[in-house]
Write a structure and sequence with these properties.
Helix content: 40-55%
Number of helices: 16
Largest sheet: 5 strands, antiparallel
Mean pLDDT: 81
Low-confidence stretches: 503-516
Strand order of the largest sheet: 2-1-5-4-3
Radius of gyration: 36 Å
Number of strands: 17
Structural class: alpha+beta
Length: 516
């Protein structure tokens, strides 16, 4: 027996022995290293309590009882793959072979030769992760070539990352604003593996993150992946109550970088079962960085396409706009010289409005001046009233807002709403919370209709363009209504998105237009 114990101690695999009562009677050095229990502590302990995971203990006890009663054991003298328990509570895969042998007193001793499969399992998982990582990157690259919107592409990216990483939820924040006033805004685009996670969407919708604030803000500030392994325990995670309520307790935030500048943050959330080991985090960082590049390219491509279509739309409207201007001017002009002066003045106004609508402004401008120049193609100034607070419009918001107002003025001119004694009112005010600017465009008919006009079956590009500018570029709400009294458009625009935080630049907009 001494030579057998010596052989066991020199074995490279773990060798453990158990008597008919399930107590440890042999425990070599490799077993000490594999399971973390010193031989002195292991000897005489229950094998089931020592290394058998809780979910397998009942089966272990039944198998031992069955063998003691019948002498039969279906797993004996075979290679069996199962999981075992380390002293620290970690569960890991093993391969074992069990051999019953007679003991010195006539009883049976069960010897198990055990090999840890943790290294092989880790290698298999790493290989599987690399394969899924490659598949995800290939799918994203292929999707980038398809004719899908930026929102659809973002959704596909979130779905792909969650599928490859096993995360349960994903979302994309985008940077809006400049300098110290820049914030991460939610896009509202989510991957949710289960509808019960919906409360986290509502919790995120109302939050804006500054540089270094919250998990997304820290990823933005550091430019590196940030991970949280226990959301409920993190006081810095401001949305933790909603996430804890639905069981999302782990999180990863990835900055979306292009050309050295971060323009968004991807965030992903998982349950306690979500893997966040080094391999998964590396894979997330690789896939996330490539998705960031793809998102940026898609965003620029969509922006270029919008501008192309907008320019095409303007060219298509040019003749009808100029004809309407000419008709309006000719009605008022008494001589050819008066007609030339009025018409050429309107042509200059058209050029100014188009310039402001197409080119990004380099400085912030006053809202009243912006409104006046954007609608300066309308000639009947005495029938136009403008009311607006003297707020400074941020330079990033000048172009989309001017484009919307110019489009409305163009339509009014094309369809004759501003003529024949009709009146136009443009009113801008802050709502009760002072968090939104409400801008109302109201074209009043001279003679109300007896019944509401029919709703157009087709939404034109001009309307789609305005809606995209208001909802996509300005983060607001766009509503329009055609009734007996005339035409009404209401814009609700977030003040933090619209208002510049610096003083107005001098004379960036000429104010000698409608309403002056």
């Amino acid at each position: 027996m001494k030579h057998l114990e010596s052989l066991f101690d020199r074995a490279l695999d773990a060798v453990v022995g158990m008597d008919e009562a399930g107590l440890v009677v042999a425990w070599n050095g490799a077993a000490e290293e594999m399971f973390g229990w010193p031989r002195a502590d292991a000897m005489g302990s229950s094998m089931g309590d020592l290394i058998v995971p809780p979910q397998h203990r009942e089966g272990h006890a039944r198998g031992l009882e069955h063998y003691n009663r019948t002498g039969e054991g279906p797993v004996l003298e075979q290679r069996v793959r199962i999981t075992a328990l380390h002293r620290d509570g970690a569960e890991f895969p093993i391969e074992l072979s069990i051999f019953p042998m007679p003991g010195g007193g006539g009883e049976r001793i069960f010897y198990a030769f055990i090999r840890s499969m943790a290294a092989e399992e880790a290698a298999r998982r790493a290989q599987d992760l690399r394969a899924r990582e490659g598949e995800a990157l290939l799918a994203v690259a292929q999707k980038l070539l398809e004719d899908v919107s930026l929102d659809e592409f973002t959704q596909f990216c979130l779905d792909s990352v969650c599928a490859v990483s096993g995360m349960e939820a994903g979302h994309f924040h985008v940077v809006r604003g400049r300098g110290p006033h820049a914030r991460l805004h939610p896009t509202g685009i989510w991957h949710l593996a289960d509808p019960r996670f919906q409360p986290v969407v509502e919790a995120t919708r109302v939050v804006r993150f500054g540089l270094g604030e919250g998990l997304p803000g820290r990823a933005w500030q550091s430019g590196q992946l940030q991970a949280l392994f226990d959301l409920p325990a993190s006081c810095q995670f401001v949305r933790r109550s909603a996430f804890e309520e639905v069981g999302l307790t782990r999180a990863v935030a990835l900055p979306v970088r292009q050309g050295g500048e971060i323009h968004g943050v991807l965030e992903f959330f998982g349950t306690l079962h979500a893997r966040l080991d080094e391999e998964v985090l590396r894979m997330l960082q690789t896939v996330g960085s490539q998705i960031g590049v793809a998102l940026h390219r898609k965003e620029h491509a969509e922006h270029r396409e919008t501008l192309r279509r907008e320019m095409s739309h303007r060219v298509g409207n040019s003749l009808s706009v100029l004809a309407s201007i000419y008709r309006s001017c000719s009605r008022e002009a008494r001589t050819k010289d008066e007609l030339d002066e009025a018409f050429l003045g309107r042509l200059v106004a058209v050029g100014q409005a188009n310039r402001m609508a197409v080119e990004d402004a380099s400085e912030s401008v006053a809202l009243p001046a912006l409104i006046k120049e954007a609608i300066s193609i309308l000639p009947e100034r005495d029938r136009i009233s403008i009311e607006a607070p003297d707020m400074a419009v941020d330079r990033d918001s000048v172009m989309p807002l001017a484009l919307v107002l110019n489009e409305l003025a163009t339509n009014a001119l094309k369809h004759g709403s501003s003529c024949e004694d009709s009146r136009l009112a443009v009113r801008a005010r802050f709502d009760g919370s002072h968090e939104n600017l409400v801008l109302e465009w109201r074209e009043h008919r001279a003679v109300p209709l007896a019944a509401p006009p029919p709703t157009p079956e087709r939404v034109g590009f001009g309307t789609k363009l305005m809606q995209h500018m208001v909802e996509g570029r300005l983060g607001g709400i766009f509503e329009r209504c055609l009734d007996e009294a005339g035409f009404r458009v209401m814009l609700m625009l977030p003040r933090e998105r619209l208002e510049a935080q610096t003083e107005l630049a001098p004379a960036t907009i000429q104010s000698g237009a409608a309403g002056s």
